[in-house]
Automatic annotation (TrEMBL):
Active-site residue list: 358 (nucleophile)
Coiled coil: none
Name of the protein: RsmB/NOP family class I SAM-dependent RNA methyltransferase
Pfam families: Methyltr_RsmB-F (PF01189), NusB (PF01029)
UniProt family annotation: Belongs to the class I-like SAM-binding methyltransferase superfamily. RsmB/NOP family.
Broadest EC class assigned to this enzyme: transferase
Binding site for S-adenosyl-L-methionine: 242-248, 263, 289, 305
Organism, as annotated: Tropicimonas aquimaris
The SAM-dependent MTase RsmB/NOP-type domain, residue ranges: 145-427
Length: 427
């Protein structure tokens, strides 16, 4: 067996473990990929396994439709996972049938030897006849509980467009300390109207020009908006209340403001330290619970990027629909409200607050803002903060001082994460 073939089998086995962790144990890919079993694999095997697992999670619904005509009975979960992985390789990646089918048969022998002939026969049919129906199949649907809520908020036609967007692997967006045409060209990207640099194909991020020098960091174009809305200024006292891993802290620090970056997770703060070190930017870092921490004085501006269901980022986290459930939402909404109240208390008179979440659910966005304004009569929307922002499209405005992005926006440019962003000012 050649080296590449051996690597291919190892990557497929690891990809199988990843999707099985998500489907069977409801673990996130981040949790699975933190496991030594994954981290100790060779980098190229990890990269290939991660790519295959993510594509399979995005396209599992399509794979099931392609498999259905050839399956006499419902296979056990482990065998279905092998069939889905192989179907995605065959029909989405266009991989050569021989290698894919042989590898799947080998995995099936390890899983349950008696299923190997069935796996072989089914995948040969899929390879020969599956392509015609593949493009015509509907994109994978969101889980029913989420589809219902998103449908009520945006209408079913828009949900279908979101589902189509969630199937696509996102481009790589970069926030630069000083974005300019020369940097965009060196990276092989384009400058988006909102200021981020977008690369359609990235490869290994750390090998890109300017990474070692800390000239930029990876951040979705929508995720770059909240710090731009806050518009921190040099010398201001600014708090990033849920800061790690620090994309928004870096933006705030790059303005010359005096930034305090707080997060409860020491592990995530390690990544924030790394990011500050690489970019040469400065912030005071605090490991604490935002609900308990007492600052030594009020802040001129606070960014609250609150913990949320994160379903605006399903393009980059295709495991989320399989691991999150309806019961997760209420505790998050309560936590966001409590954090927003703490933020208001820590704000100086006349101070600015930006509240944001990367959720497409109104409970974590529009409704959260309405309830916050109701609880705090001294807090007012700040429409100028969002109207001054370059590149913001008419359709993103969601009431005074608020922006709403959803993943089907900017289809011609490669999409956008779903975010809700509200700009507020304290009396
Ligand atoms: C949406 S993420 C923040 C992303 C970050 N702003 C960025 O741009 O890189 C939410 C963060 O809230 C943190 N968090 C959750 N509960 C917290 C709490 N009680 N106090 C402080 N941070 C908390 C999580 O550890 C997580 O890092």
């Amino acid at each position: 067996m050649g080296q590449q073939q051996a690597g291919g089998t190892a990557a497929r086995r690891l990809a199988l473990e990843l999707v099985q962790g998500v489907w069977q144990e409801r673990l996130t890919l981040a949790e699975m990929e933190a496991h030594p079993h994954f981290t100790e694999a060779p980098p190229e095997v990890r990269a290939r396994a991660g790519r295959l697992a993510r594509t399979t999670l995005r396209l599992a619904g399509r794979a099931d439709a392609a498999l259905k005509p050839w399956l006499k009975r419902n296979p056990k979960p482990g065998v279905r996972a092998i069939l889905r992985l192989a179907t995605v390789e065959l029909l989405a990646d266009g991989a050569a049938a021989h290698g894919v089918v042989n590898a799947a048969v080998a995995l099936a022998r390890e899983e349950a030897a008696s299923t190997a002939p069935m796996v072989n026969a089914v995948l040969r049919r899929v390879a020969e006849e599956g392509r015609a129906g593949w493009e015509a199949t509907q994109p994978q649907r969101l889980p029913n509980w989420l589809r219902g809520r998103v449908g009520s908020a945006y209408g079913n036609a828009r949900v279908a467009r979101m589902e189509a967007a969630f199937e696509q692997a996102p481009p790589l967006d970069i926030t630069a300390k000083a974005p300019d045409a020369a940097l965009a060209e060196a990276l092989g990207g384009t400058i988006l109207p909102t200021g981020s640099i977008r690369l359609e194909k990235a490869g290994q991020v750390s090998a890109l020009p300017g990474y070692e020098a800390g000239d930029w960091w990876v951040q979705d174009a929508a995720a770059a908006l909240p710090a731009r809305v806050l518009a921190a200024r040099a010398g201001e006292r600014v708090l990033d209340l849920c800061a790690a891993p620090g994309g928004k802290t870096l933006q705030l620090a790059a303005t010359g403001a005096s930034v305090t970056a707080l997060d409860v997770s020491e592990a995530r703060l390690e990544r924030l330290y790394d990011n500050l070190k690489r970019t040469g930017l400065a912030a005071e870092v605090v490991a604490a619970d935002a609900l308990e921490w007492e600052p030594d004085g009020p802040f001129d501006a606070i960014l609250l990027d609150a913990p949320c269901s994160a379903n605006g980022t399903i393009r980059r986290h295709p495991d989320l629909p399989f691991v999150k459930e309806a019961a997760d939402i209420r505790p998050l909404v309560d936590l966001q409200a409590a954090m927003a109240d703490r933020a208001v208390a820590m704000l100086a008179p006349g101070g600015r607050l930006v509240f944001c979440t990367c959720s497409i659910l109104p409970e974590e966005g529009e409704a959260q803002l309405a309830a916050l304004l109701e609880r705090h009569p001294d807090l007012k929307p700040d429409p100028e903060a969002v109207s001054a922002l370059p590149g913001v499209e008419e359709g993103w405005h969601a009431g005074p001082g608020a922006l709403r992005t959803t993943p089907e926006m900017w289809p011609e440019r490669g999409g956008l994460d779903g975010f809700f962003i509200a700009a507020l000012r304290k009396a």
